[in-house]
Structure formats: structure tokens, C-alpha cells
User: Which sequence fits this backbone?
């Protein structure tokens, strides 16, 4: 089945830019979706179709996808952005069509 | 406002059964595919199953195929997950999630999630 690889953790100072990567074989040919999950809460969609933002998600959140890496970028990071972030794709050729990355813990220093 | 409210979780012995429900409101339920996604304690997200808006197409992760059955009652705006032959590794919070598509044939992602219901499989 298709595998998505995320770094376990990323740390960033407030006001700086955080970049969370999601690696997969030719992931640029797939649509990537990103979720934010804060402790004790359900996941929230923050980016869909590589770079689209749902209503209510700040413009500070952006996404890109090319080659073997997709990236979630959070500009001007705030303390409230501290959470786990998961990437996700649909792999129609797989027995496990909905695939999540292992998640990245974003720590705001 | 979209709302998804799961119920039916609890403690069950290995080999036992449980049925989860997800009551939906705030959108035209029959127009959208729905999924179950689970999260074991301290672990990441794992997709379990999906069903098209009409209920005519279903998808399962290999880890639950043959043991779990997803279904929906569009007249009651409710999604179900029948879980049989439960194992310790099925212990997790189970989330109901809405897809902004009628079916998951070309892509599948989740724009709204419920708060989850905890299933614990233990003797």
C-alpha cells in the first residue's frame, strides 16, 4: 500500500514560518489534504487539494505539492497553532485507498 | 451548521460485537459519502471504512475487512459501523467523518468530523 512519511516533530518560534513535509512516491500526481488535531479534539481540515483552504482557516496556512514531497506551510506561527498535523491522500490503486501520514507534532517554542 | 454525533462506544470483550452510530445534521445527508476513521490511544489516524451517499458503494481497510460493516439510513440521517470479532488492536476512538463528495471513487477527504466515541476491547 501507499506510504506517506512525515517528520515526527517540528519546532518553531512564534512569528516564524513552519514547514511540515509529507513524502510519498510521486505524491505530486495525487491530491494531498492536511488536518490539524489539537489534544483531545477531533481533526480539522486545514488544506485540501494540495493548496485550497476551507472557509475559516487563516491565510497563514498554505500548501504545495510537487515531485515526491507535499508541504504544509504555516506563516507567522502562533501559540494556538501547536498541534498534530496529518497529511492524507486517496490511492485508488491500493487495498487501503485512504492513506494518512504518521503525523507531525508542531511545537511552538 | 454541520453536526456529527457518534454513539455506541464502550468496553467489549475480545471476540465481541459493537455497533456505532453517527447522527448527522445540518446538511443533505444522502448527498455525501461518509467514513469512519479511528485513532488508537497515543497513535495516528487510521481510515476504517467509507460509504457512498446512496449507500451503494462501500470501502474497507484490510485490517477490518470481513469483520466490520458500514451502512447508512438516509431516512434517519444516520451512519453505522457494525463491528464483529473485535480484537484488542481495534481499541481506539472512532470518528465519523463527512466527505464533500457523493462517493470516494476519485478522491476522498474529510471536511467535517464528529467528536468521536471510544471503543475499548479488553477482557
Assistant:
Amino acid at each position: 500500500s501507499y506510504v506517506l512519511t512525515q517528520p515526527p516533530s517540528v519546532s518553531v518560534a512564534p512569528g516564524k514560518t513552519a514547514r511540515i513535509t509529507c513524502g510519498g512516491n510521486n505524491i505530486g500526481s495525487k491530491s494531498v489534504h492536511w488536518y490539524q488535531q489539537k489534544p483531545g479534539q477531533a481533526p480539522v481540515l486545514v488544506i485540501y487539494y494540495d493548496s485550497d483552504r476551507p472557509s475559516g482557516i487563516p491565510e497563514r496556512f498554505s500548501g504545495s505539492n510537487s515531485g515526491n514531497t507535499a508541504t504544509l506551510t504555516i506563516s507567522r506561527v502562533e501559540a494556538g497553532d501547536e498541534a498534530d498535523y496529518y497529511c492524507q491522500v486517496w490511492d485508488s490503486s491500493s487495498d487501503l485507498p485512504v492513506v494518512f501520514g504518521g503525523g507531525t507534532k508542531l511545537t511552538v517554542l | 451548521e454541520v453536526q456529527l454525533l457518534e454513539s455506541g462506544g464502550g468496553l467489549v470483550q475480545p471476540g465481541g460485537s459493537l455497533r456505532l452510530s453517527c447522527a448527522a445534521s445540518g446538511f443533505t445527508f444522502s448527498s455525501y459519502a461518509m467514513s469512519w476513521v479511528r485513532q488508537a490511544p497515543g497513535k495516528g489516524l487510521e481510515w476504517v471504512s467509507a460509504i457512498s451517499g446512496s449507500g451503494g458503494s462501500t470501502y474497507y481497510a484490510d485490517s477490518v475487512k470481513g469483520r466490520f460493516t458500514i451502512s447508512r439510513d438516509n431516512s434517519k440521517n444516520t451512519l453505522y459501523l457494525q463491528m464483529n470479532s473485535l480484537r484488542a488492536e481495534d481499541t481506539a476512538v472512532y470518528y465519523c467523518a463527512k466527505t464533500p463528495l457523493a462517493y470516494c471513487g476519485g478522491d476522498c477527504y474529510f471536511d467535517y468530523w464528529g467528536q468521536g466515541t471510544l471503543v475499548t476491547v479488553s477482557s
Chain B has a mean pLDDT of 96. The interface with chain A takes residues 35, 37, 44-47, 50, 59, 61-62, 95, 104-116 of chain B (CB under 8 Å). The longest strand of chain B covers residues 18-25.
